Amino acid sequence: MIAEMTWWSYILELLSLGLLAFTIGLTAFRAGRHPDVKPFSLLAGGGGAVIASFFVVLLSPARPVGAVITVLLLLGAAGGVFLGSRAKFEVRGGGLKSAQGIWYLVVWSSLVFLSSLLLVSGSGLAKAGVSIMLISSLAVAGYTYCLYMRYALSARQ
Amino acid sequence: MFCPQCGHSERDDTRFCTACGKQLLPVARTLPQGKHAGPRTPLLIGIIASIVVFAIMVATAIVGFTASKSAKSNTVKMSTPKEAATQLLLAMQRRDLSNLKSLLDPDFVKKFNETNPGGYESLLEKHFFGNVPGDAEFEDLTFDTSVNGNAATVQLTGGSAHYEDACGNQVKKKAIELLPPKTDLVNRDGGWYVSIPEE
Lengths: 157, 199
Prior knowledge:
The complex is a heterodimer.
Chain A: H1 7-33, E1 36-37, H2 39-59, H3 66-86, E2 89-92, E3 95-98, H4 103-121, H5 126-156
Antiparallel strand pairs in A: 1-3, 2-3
Helix pairs in contact in A: 1-4, 2-5, 3-5, 4-5
Chain B: H1 27-30, H2 34-37, H3 41-73, H4 81-94, H5 97-103, H6 106-115, H7 120-129, E1 137-148, E2 151-164, E3 170-174, E4 182-188, E5 191-194
Antiparallel strand pairs in B: 1-2, 2-3, 2-4, 4-5
Helix pairs in contact in B: 4-5
C-alpha cells in the first residue's frame, strides 16, 4: 500500500528517489575506480549528512520521540567513530588513499533510499525509516570526521 | 656546486651566488612546503568543523525534544463529549484545520501521521470539510449524547443550515444534510477527543 499523498508530493518523491538511485550508481562507479579521497570531501560529506538529519527531524511528522532521537544520534556517531578509527589509509600528496574509498557514501545513500521507501510505503514503518536515516547519517559523520582528524594529525607529523 | 653564470664555487644549499648574485636554487624548493607552511591548518579546520557538526547534532536533539513536547501540547482537552462535538462542528463550519487537529484523538493522529506522512492535512480537509459549503451558517443545533465508559457518541438531532449556492440563491437545509449525523468520541486522560473509526 502506498501512503495517501497529494499528486505533487508523489511526483516530487518519485523524482527524488530517481535522483538518489542515480547518485548511488554514480558514486559506486567512482568508488570502484578511485580509492583516493579528498580530505575536504570527508568534511563536506559528514557535514551534509548531519545537516540532512537535522532537517529530517525538523520536518518529518514521523520523527521518533526526543529521547530516541538522542540515542540514535549518539549510537550512530559512536559507531562511525569506531569504524573511522579502524579504517586503513595512507597520506598521498594533498589527499589520502583509503581502503574503503568513498564507499561510505554509497552505503549512506542506499540507507537514505531505503528510509525514503519506508516513509512513503504507508506500512506504518515511517518511524523506522526516519530512525535508519538518523543513525546512518551520524555514522557517516562520525566515520568521516574521525578519518579526517587522523589524516590531519598524521599530516602534522 | 658552481655558479652557471660566473663559475664561482658555492655550497650545495646556497640559494644565490655570493659573487654575481645569480639564483642557484629554485625559489619553490627553498620556500616552505604546504605541510610546513601551516602544519596546524588541517587540524584546526577539522576541530572547527567538528564543533560545528556537534552543535548541529545537539540542535537536532533539541528540535526532537521540542517537537515531541509540542505534539503533546497541540491537543485541547474537552471536558464533555458534547463540548468536543460542538467544537468539531464549529471547526468544520469555519474550515479551521488547526482547531480540528487539536480536537482529534492524539493516538489516531499519531498513527495517521506515520502511515500518511505526505497527505495528512489534505485527507483531513477532504474528510471533514468536503461536504460543508464555505459560507454555511448553522442554527439551533441539538444533540443527543450517550456515554459508554471511555467511549461516547453524540447524535445530531436537529438544527438548520443556510448558505448561498453557486448561482447566488439562499439555500436552507437541515443541518443533518451537511454535517455528520453522529460523532464518535473517546476519553483520553480525562479529555474527550473525536475518534475516527478505522475503515
